[in-house]
Amino acid sequence: MQPETFSLKSTYKRLPTCGKYLAQQNRKVFCIATMAMVSGCTGFGTVSSSTEPAGRAESTKTNVLEAGAAMLQTDSPLDPMNVYLVGFHPMKDDPSHQMEAHHFCTQANEDFAQCALFDGNTRSANLNGIEYIISEKIFESLPESEKQYWHPHNGEILSGQLVAPGLPVKADHELMKSKMNSYGKTWHTWDATHGKPGESLPFGEPKLAWSFNRIGEAKKGLVESRDKRMDINTEERRNARQDLLPLAKPQSGVDALKGQFERPTRSIPGVVDKKTTNQSEALSESDSR
Description:
Blueprint: H1 9-14, H2 17-23, H3 30-39, H4 60-72, E1 83-91, E2 94-109, E3 112-118, E4 127-134, H5 136-141, H6 144-147, E5 151-152, H7 154-158, H8 169-178, E6 183-188, E7 207-208, E8 214-215, H9 222-230, H10 234-240, E9 266-267, H11 274-288
Antiparallel strand pairs: 1-2, 2-3, 3-4, 4-6, 5-6, 6-7, 8-9
């Protein structure tokens, strides 16, 4: 999922740690390596799943079949899913149920992306959900009955919590800029929270996930644990994204879970609920009459 660089040894030696990770991958994007040298990277660490699925170990026959499929079957819909994001989701019907989410996404067009969600970023990670990402333009075209399923993204971006691991800082910044004012529809199918062994199978109904829209909504240690394991600095990302504030528009769903979290919370500059804005405008019009 990280773009490959050309293999000049001298360039490789000058890369920061995350840039070296980029250089080891099997893609060919020279500009990414250049940005890594100039600006450094967002951090990257392997995150193994803490949940072991129920079932027997794979047989030799199964391994052989898998190897054959990997060599002979091509054009997989998973091949383009090379945009990697890591963030956090509370469940809409139970905000105390929160998890770290590793997104592997493909951008279908400028207005639509789709992601497979995992509980880690290694080969043993478990698939535990899906997310569709749409632009503000498409969201506004949805019927009101559908909008309740789509969470806003500005809080995730401007808080610094949503990160594209391993990318040069400038590339991460441009990616986040492109997702400003977007929305996501996320269903988690498996309760597999990092660090806490979940169920050995994806039991029960899928859960509609939401986004954090105020500082303090994430449980204590949730963000900090991710940052430590993956060498990510959320506060640094938040500060670096302040220039995105002028792009932020009021979004639907920002206050959907307001007041339902255990800890005291405070607002994130630029993250405003559209209903609050509409009410303020209505009051202003009333006062001016």
